[in-house]
Amino acid sequence: MRESMEFDVVIVGAGPAGLSTACRLMQQAQQAERDMSVCVVEKGSEVGAHIFSGAVLEPRALTELFPDWEDRGAPLNTPVIGDEIYLFQDAERAKRIPNSFVPKSMHNEGNYVISLGNLTRWLAEQAEGLGVEIFPGFAAAEILYHENGAVKGIATGDMGVSADGSQKGSYMEGMELHAKYTVFSEGCRGHLGKQLLAKYALDDGVDVQHYGIGIKELWDIDPAKHKPGLVVHGAGWPLDKDTNGGSFLYHGENNQVVVGLVVDLSYSNPYLGPFDEFQRMKQHPVFKNTLEGGKRVSYGARAMTKGGLNALPKMCFPGGLLVGCDAGTLNFAKIKGTHTAMKSGMVAAETIFAALQTDDEGGKELNAFTEALNASWLYDELHRSRNFGPAMHKFGTFWGGAFNYVDQNWFKGKLPFTLHDNTPDYAQLKEASECTPIEYPKPDGKISFDKLSSVFLSNTNHEEDQPCHLTLKDESVPVKRNWGLFSGPEARFCPAGVYEFVEDPEKHDMRLQINAQNCLHCKTCDIKDPSQNITWVVPEGTGGPNYPNM
Amino acid sequence: MKILVMVKRVSDPNVMIRVSADNSSVDLNNVKMAINPFCEIAVEEAVRLKEAGIATEVVALSIGGTQSQEQIRTALAMGADRGILIESEGPLESLTVAKLTQKIIEEEQPGLVILGKQSTDTDNSQTGQMLASLMGWAQGTFASKLEISGEKINLTREVDSGLQTLSLSMPAVVTCDLRLNEPRFASLPNIMKAKRKPLDVKAAGDLGVDLTPRIKTLMVETPNERQGGTVLGSVAELVEKLKTEKGVI
Ligand SMILES: Cc1cc2nc3c(=O)[nH]c(=O)nc-3n(C[C@H](O)[C@H](O)[C@H](O)COP(=O)(O)OP(=O)(O)OC[C@H]3O[C@@H](n4cnc5c(N)ncnc54)[C@H](O)[C@@H]3O)c2cc1C
Ligand SMILES: Cc1cc2nc3c(=O)[nH]c(=O)nc-3n(C[C@H](O)[C@H](O)[C@H](O)COP(=O)(O)OP(=O)(O)OC[C@H]3O[C@@H](n4cnc5c(N)ncnc54)[C@H](O)[C@@H]3O)c2cc1C
Ligand code: SF4
Fold first, then answer.
1. What is the ipTM of this complex?
2. Which among A267, A237, A244, A269 is positioned nearest to A404, based on CA atoms?
3. What radius of gyration do chain A's Cα atoms show?
4. Which of A203, A252, A318, A321 is the most buried (most CB within 10 A)?
5. pLDDT tens figures, A119-136
């Protein structure tokens, strides 16, 4: 029998959604002078270690949560000073789009260039100050259910298990954390969230979810080129006309910039490598001019949930709630998900608190959450943006962009119809025989780099002797189907070089080698594997990247 | 017997570090910090000695900034009973650390002090040795095995020629090598309990130790990047290269 501990609320994941839930719960408890035990488990070695974002923050939710965030020293130090938007034509040319043509949703006055990692570290301090127990280094590995089917809590993973499954000297059994309500805030493609969607059929009747992969680097640049608060976005090259996505360059504090590329995972050419697209993108003069003479500090990648309102599942089930990007609250028209993730967490906290005030037992299905969300600005915001992603998918970047301009600027997102896109991203991949291989330029080691030296900068680390956390439903599928039909796309879409097809001299065939230690926890393989054969599960706690201010 | 165990806050050895733009120091902004891995081994050893009934109390001492409390809490979660932080924001040299520790030893009267053999940030490997001579105590450095019976310690250390076994009488200073033990994971209930264990904070300036630095850092530089190696086809080719290209044979 595993040991167990009891809490009022257990929260899975110390991202903006989970930490906002925790803070709001405690604020209400203090106001009502009620005892409340709230615990947050986080798989990263510290809060922020696995947080990966842009980020331009819209401070709306933060201001609601902590109106005095400035006095409390929240790390919002760089107000946006201006937006620049480019349409990249090719490797040399780009057109700057006049401000009057930019969709309203892409304007950033009043927002801040931040490190979301540092914001969550600060939020964790606030939460601990309010009495929340935060446990970094502990991954929620399993959902626990009551006999009546309601969620009872979670179990943390066992520690000190060797690759063959046997117990090492340091073995420590996982623990059960029981709660009246359990909040899942694992971010995009949560490993437990995915199980909840299936178990309670939460996504029945809504559009299929869509995803993007974001790859980003943090650079120290020449102070002469640094313009704190400048926000640059781009569309077009290096992505071809069938592939959606966008690039970004944000000037933060301390002579640092972040440069990144988001590639929609609905892309169809299996030869495409999001990492390679990103590396060659940086060679464009618009980026290169800023980066030249600078030094790369960190690297990382993370998938994002971009289906918006059309794909938003039901977020409540007996005994718990699903919040933030684990459900898919990101506003893709703005490419912002932090303020919406926070808001969903705050509404969740208010719903749970009200429920516990009238019925202390817990374990109920909180339909009031859906009503409260629908009545909040979060719903209104997502409703206005509901056509943005599907328009891009349906009409391509150019016409989709035009549609979005009209929809967002003239009708404020209120056009009286909704576009749908119901082909899952993994099913968009075409067979290799129908596609042209892409020749990517060799990295120059100054502006563009190879995968391994990049992964090194993510500080990712996993205990070597442990079971592989990238599990295969069928061991034969990678070579037979993924290699055979799709030329092994996992070797290209994984931004960390985890999947390698190597020749097996004995069998005169290919063999899939999984370098699990390199994994960045981006979840792309779980999403884009054309055979849906890879399931990402949590590795031993603390494993994964150690991002600095990402 | 009381054990004093030292824990140092260092940059996490799994994390890349960078030299600051003006080459004056290592830039620790936004760098993840952790307990020095050798100190973790020291804590584990102390806690095992307590579990074996040899020690009665384990006190964890750190000298550093306010945030070093996090590393003391880690030691407490692993099983230390209470913590002491000597707060000092400036850079610390091994000798200063040893002298400050001496003050705590005079107050606490431990029978044994356990430290890491070195800390992974500065790599001095000096604190334990300096402390032992300041105290006039026996020292056993780089311990890979430790046995205590009565007032005697039998200590095995890894030396270039093999294993050396020392017999020390207590009180003594011991520094730990990597192979002494495998530190445990702290469990959730123990992490929660650790938050309520006593942690005493003292100001370094109040202990009557001269904190003026004796070492001036002139410049900090990143080591040259290693050039990639090449795989050669045969021994003959290697000999040829050593002769003609390197001129070493
Ligand atoms: C490249 C990129 C750029 C972006 N740019 C912006 C931007 O400019 N502005 C903006 O507002 N938003 C931006 N976003 C979106 C924003 O980052 C997300 O919407 C936001 O982080 C979602 O918050 P969350 O709390 O739901 O999840 P996350 O931030 O993903 O946090 C989830 C946390 O839960 C932990 N966790 C997950 N599973 C488990 C488990 N089983 N056990 C324990 N812990 C677990 C994770 O380690 C993580 O710490 C961007 C995203 C990307 C990828
Ligand atoms: C896993 C691993 C294996 C390694 N293997 C090798 C190897 O085989 N060979 C090699 O040459 N290098 C190795 N290294 C690198 C080596 O560990 C460092 O060179 C070295 O640890 C630096 O020690 P230091 O001299 O700064 O220690 P000191 O500063 O003398 O510190 C020694 C001990 O004093 C105590 N202490 C010091 N300051 C404080 C303080 N402020 N508060 C409380 N206590 C304090 C701590 O207990 C500390 O462990 C390894 C590193 C790691 C992480
Ligand atoms: S293995 Fe999967 S989750 Fe890990 S980095 Fe690669 S694609 Fe991302």
1. 0.88
2. A244
3. 23
4. A321
5. 999 999 999 999 999 999
Report chain B residues touching chain A, CB-CB < 8 A. 12, 14-16, 18, 21, 29-32, 34, 182-185, 187-189, 191-192
| Contact assessment for residue A160 and residue A172, using Cβ atoms and an 8 Å cutoff | yes
* Atom nearest to A522 CA in ligand 3: 8
Q: What is the pLDDT of residue A118?
A: 97
The span from the CA of A187 to the CA of A304, in Å, is 8
pLDDT grade, residue A232 (50/70/90)?
A: very high
Question: Among A303-317, A419-433, A451-465, which stretch is predicted with the lowest mean pLDDT?
Answer: A419-433
Q: What is the pLDDT of residues A84-116, one digit of tens each?
A: 989 899 999 998 888 877 777 778 999 999 999
Superfamily of domain B2-245: HUPs (3.40.50.620)
Q: What is the DSSP string of chain B?
A: -EEEEE--EEE-TTS--EE-TTSSSEE-TT--EEE-HHHHHHHHHHHHHHHTTS-SEEEEEEEESGGGHHHHHHHHHHT-SEEEEEE--S---HHHHHHHHHHHHHHH--SEEEEESS-TTT----HHHHHHHHHT-EEEEEEEEEEEETTEEEEEEEETTEEEEEEEESSEEEEE-GGG--PPPPPHHHHHHHTTS-EEEEEGGGGT-------------PPPPPPPP---S-HHHHHHHHHHTS---
Torsion, CA A163, CA A165, CA A168, CA A172, rounded to 10:
120
Residue ranges of chain A that CATH labels 3.50.50.60: 4-67+117-206+313-384
* CATH class name, domain A4-67+117-206+313-384: alpha beta
Predicted confidence band of residue A335 (pLDDT cuts 50, 70, 90): confident
Q: How far is CA A550 from the centre of its chain?
A: 12
Cβ atoms of residues A212 and A311 within 8 Å: no
The pLDDT mean for chain A works out to 94
Would you call A494 a catalytic residue per the annotation? yes
Query: For residue A91, what are its two tokens?
Result: 């490797």
- Strand A82-88 with A230-236, pairing: parallel
pLDDT surpasses 90 at A353: yes
Instruction: Count the residues in chain B.
Output: 249
Chain A contact residues (CB < 8 Å to B) = 3, 5, 45-46, 49, 115, 117-118, 133, 135, 138, 156, 159-160, 168-170, 172, 175, 177, 220, 254-255, 297, 456-457, 459, 461, 546, 548-549
pLDDT of A391 > 80? The answer is no
CB atoms within 10 A of CB A519: 27
pLDDT classification of A399: cutoffs 50, 70, 90: low
